[in-house]
């Protein structure tokens, strides 16, 4: 499996390569332009960051939640996890979790172990977690092992799948019973919430998790993730911990203005719904042509099993992302829909497929 | 001494509080808008990052220099220093150096010590460095101490001062003689090069240092610093080291497009010259009124000694930055000129000063 | 699975609880006493440490090998691995490897990831390693993942098993082909070499590995492990790296004198042979009684599957170590033979077993 | 200034080179021999470690103090400091403090900064500390700097000097007022308490500090330092933090038995008194001959200013430690008295001096 973008610059062809191939959503760009010449204080103390925090607190339905902004996703995971874990603790993740595989060791760089559990379609099964924790804490002799201090999940997962409310509730209850922090990586949170399969609101996420992120980069921002802590879970002197890890932007307005825009008049959800709408069309488009899917993904990433001959011809007209070999003559590829994907892009993909399969 | 921006949002008043109070220079914003909807690959592999690298290599006059982009200044220092130091080494800095004081321990977070030397107006004296290194390496018994592996300087320094070519040459020769890396933090590099006192070009910096940064954030960018390595000093697998430290932006276009613009048609130097021109006017404006300066700074930060009564009245009309107490009745404050500072701002400051001293 | 010793002090009963329940082998204690009042220089620069290094170089048959002494096993692994890995690298281990499970995150504390592979009886299969590396290095897009820089194996493994020469040769060749360091944790190295199943000498280990440890703690020392590097793999300024990690003993004589004794007249091998001899008797003793073994371990740790009722009665007379539940009514327990185990101890165990099974 | 022992093995000559040139005090060696063959549980859970903890709790007069044993001094400092500091904090030390200069960056390796204060004869002046803390905490804008979380002092200091009770009380009060931990490095604690100038008991140290170490290595042990925490300052899961840092000895009996012996019948204090008695004789011996002292050290390290010609001749007969150049023709050297120093050694030194100065 590889990351969403290759070494070369994408050419002008229709691209489903990742959900961060375009710049900022026009509404965000507009606000960046409008506020550009205002003198604002630095390091996230500006009015737009303040407004964005308040709008996010309103959206999550928890007036005393603590909200901060960080430029990138790996940085967000590393800063949050390492600021919250205690010396003797590690973080539990699915063996396919982003922090376990695709962050170049950023969690270990902070001195903490990622404790991996088996996964199913990218998810941790509550029963698996429970068995692991109960085995760990019932064994009285743990001086030589890393304590689990946090559970990391992503929503949607690496495979685009979702935890239903029932499962997230179960994970939340297990974490509380054992005193662990539940952290949800929401790099694509909007796409998860806007999915036809989702049975949760942002307020449910807030209530069930101790801390979670709201990804901006993949949902219309140039950069930026919001981190939302329950008040009693917010690290003390978090700005210092951010600064110490190089995560405090001088012009905090950059993330502040964008999140202010995203959380004004429900734009974050509107973008997400449009993307999911097109992603479902994209899935349908493969289904109609009997092209098999690796997973029935309910979100914006679709994992398609292509015959290698078809793949070779298709990639002359459309760009997408190699995921993994499926068998001798088939390959799994990922099509990602982003805010900049248009209905025209979908039609062009349709034409390309039809041209090949004719 | 405090950082350039306080907790509160700046109000509409004329602000000399820092050189990062405004967003992006209009020329950069224009390019961000123009390129916004192009599909581009991620992580700095896009065409604009490529072009920006080439333009910087041209500007520094070293065709095989290695150029990368990082979002912020502290992150740049931490990533560069910790990627280049070897296990047993630390980095030498002036005791007032940014990495020694104002980065919340970001270098130590990477497991390396900052070895501080006495400073003069923010600078390390070559003789002081030589004595330190000669004492260190001539003593044969160094198993218990941190080896100096790098010298960190900034240009301009924290006090706005500059190393003349003669001093930088001396530092460079000492570093080579002892096998140390010379790293120049150029968060305000343009302001240094554009100063009337500067006797160096970008190519001189490149030639005399092993690695240096070209600050974007303070010279017109929303965020971003370029790091320039001599080829044989560039760390292997630097993208992995960046990723591991959370410093690899998904939408690398954000820094790529901006640096491409900054290094097109000499914009970086043009912005810098305008800023320095206004900074010299600002200095003159205090001098004419016999307001004493802490240091005769040749760059965009001016350190002014104000009577506390004057300070109290002035800050009702103009915002600036508290630096340190000077004596019982005087305070050092910093006025910073940025790309968004106008001649009108200077006139307004003049008026405010005259109104007070009348 | 738990570590070899519980919270409580062992009482006077016959103990097979671990191989570090006794102090120093009498020959080592004798030398500690004889040299005790000699004035010696510190930090491993004393004559006994020097002699021990030379004797080990002779024993491994590599005159320019670099030898250092470190107090404990976890410390040895952490110091060696973190001194040799480069910034972007992690260390491969079996998922049951000591560094992966039982060192409380000591490798991650150094900022590096442990990359785990599936295991069989505690070992990494060369084919599994080859597939992993070939998949990793043939994929051209690895900016987001940790590079494998080293393979960690133990000999004997956590399950007492051994790599035959053929397998170690295969691992060694794979490591060379891919440029990885092969590190063998020899906390119980002597027991491995003295096993009837072993088909290797110390010189083979030296030749096939880049670095390995020779455990003292479990083979007669109060504390201490020797680390042996091939010359071109020895880290520069290793004493500084040791000191930085708190691993440089002031009275280096403590490890020096003991290793000097262990490598005088083949004592290390003599102790090991005696222990293995008794361990084989112990295994036989269970076999004769048709008590099943989890693994046919060829070294000093024997993993026995006991009926829970038998276990309950046996532990009234003999102490051993809980390993893991086997099924509803059976438990795996570990019997460890050490240098202080006597034939009398074995007879007493035999009596205890007979008393129960009667 | 260099560490106490050079690269070469000390020859048979009379040595004042350091206070760790000899092995174990005979009383400790005796107990190691007597207990050697007892089967004992590992990792500090053995009965002797337990007894030693109780005897130390009695000696410090605090029944609920938490006591642990660690093999070496640098390791002790690193483990204690990094286990107690919070993410955003650093540790204050005198600029000559052992952790600031002679531990190869062990504190920074743990990710924390050593904040240095000016010193006088190795000590931090309470007024200096107060000014530093008051300046820090009264400035409201500290997102960019490392918070002071602990004060590190040593007793005796690097220069053999002592804090009188009044000064330690002042430091203690300042730490409490600002919420900082006061940690006293007692690598030579016994020598400090046994000094004619000392006006404190072990119970005073316990009462005034939050955590301190009781050095064994320099006061008769082969290795080992005891760490004593006030109960509410003891880190949770400290064994895991020790293990994670490679500081948990498998055969904890090694430190347990030795500390048990040191704290039986006041041996620790008896050894210390004998050493100090001889150190005062050594000082007197120089004074009588009008050889100047750098500092009037009240403990076991004496810093003597020798003419270089005298030094050259003296070192043919006696070994001692180079400290620093004093001027063109004089050098400061250190004479250290240890438990193995005899009255005969002193007489031999006297003879050597007389032979030279004749």
Q: Would you spell out the secondary-structure blueprint of this structure?
A:
The structure is a homotetramer of 358-residue chains.
Chain A (H helix, E strand, L loop, with lengths): L13 E2 L10 H10 L11 H14 L5 E5 L2 H12 L4 E6 L3 H4 L4 H4 L4 E4 L8 H13 L8 E8 L10 H14 L2 E5 L3 H5 L8 H7 L2 E5 L9 E5 L8 H7 L8 H10 L4 H22 L12 E7 H7 L3 E2 L1 E7 L2 E7 L6 H15 L1
Parallel strand pairs in A: 1-10, 3-4, 3-5, 5-6, 6-7
Antiparallel strand pairs in A: 2-8, 7-8, 9-12, 11-12
Query: How many helix segments of chain A?
Result: 14
Could you state the order of secondary-structure elements of chain A as H and E? EHHEHEHHEHEHEHHEEHHHEHEEEH
Low-confidence stretches of chain A: 1-9
> What name does CATH use for the topology of the largest domain in chain A?
Aspartate Aminotransferase, domain 2
Oligomeric state: homotetramer
Describe the model:
The structure is a homotetramer of 358-residue chains. In chain A, 40% of the residues lie in helices and 18% in strands. Chain A is of the alpha/beta class and 358 residues long. Chains in contact: A-B, A-C, A-D, B-C, B-D, C-D. Chains B and C meet through helix 10 of B and helix 10 of C.
């Amino acid at each position: 499996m590889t990351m969403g973008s290759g070494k070369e610059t994408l050419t002008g062809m229709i691209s489903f390569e990742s959900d961060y191939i375009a710049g900022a959503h026009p509404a965000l760009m507009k606000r960046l332009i409008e506020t550009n010449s205002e003198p604002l204080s630095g390091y996230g103390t500006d009015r737009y960051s303040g407004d964005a925090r308040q709008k996010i607190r309103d959206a999550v339905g928890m007036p005393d939640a603590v909200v901060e902004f960080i430029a990138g996703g790996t940085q967000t995971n590393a800063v949050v996890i390492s600021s919250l874990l205690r010396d003797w603790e590690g973080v539990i993740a699915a063996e396919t979790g982003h922090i376990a595989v695709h962050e170049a060791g950023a969690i270990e760089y902070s001195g903490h172990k990622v404790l991996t559990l088996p996964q199913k379609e990218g998810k941790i099964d509550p029963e698996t977690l429970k068995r692991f924790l109960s085995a760990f804490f019932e064994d009285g002799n743990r001086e030589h092992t890393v304590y689990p201090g946090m559970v990391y999940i992503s929503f949607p997962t690496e495979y685009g799948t979702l935890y239903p409310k029932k499962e997230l509730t179960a994970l939340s209850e297990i974490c509380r019973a054992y005193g662990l922090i539940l952290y949800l990586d929401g790099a694509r949170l909007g796409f998860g919430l806007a999915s036809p399969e989702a049975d949760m609101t942002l307020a449910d996420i807030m209530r069930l998790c101790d801390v979670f992120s709201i990804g901006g980069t993949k949902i219309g921002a140039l950069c930026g993730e919001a981190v939302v802590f329950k008040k009693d879970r917010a690290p003390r002197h978090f700005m210092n911990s951010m600064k110490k890890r190089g995560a405090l932007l001088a012009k905090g307005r950059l993330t502040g203005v964008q999140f202010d825009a995203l959380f004004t008049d429900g734009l974050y959800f509107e973008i997400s719904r449009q993307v999911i709408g097109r992603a479902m069309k994209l899935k349908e488009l493969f289904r109609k042509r009997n092209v098999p899917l690796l997973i029935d993904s309910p979100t914006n990433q679709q994992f398609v099993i292509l015959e290698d001959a078809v793949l070779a011809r298709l990639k002359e007209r459309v760009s997408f992302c190699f995921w993994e070999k499926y068998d001798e003559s088939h390959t799994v590829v990922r099509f990602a829909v982003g805010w900049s994907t248009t209905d025209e892009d979908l039609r062009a993909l349709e034409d390309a497929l039809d041209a090949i399969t004719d």
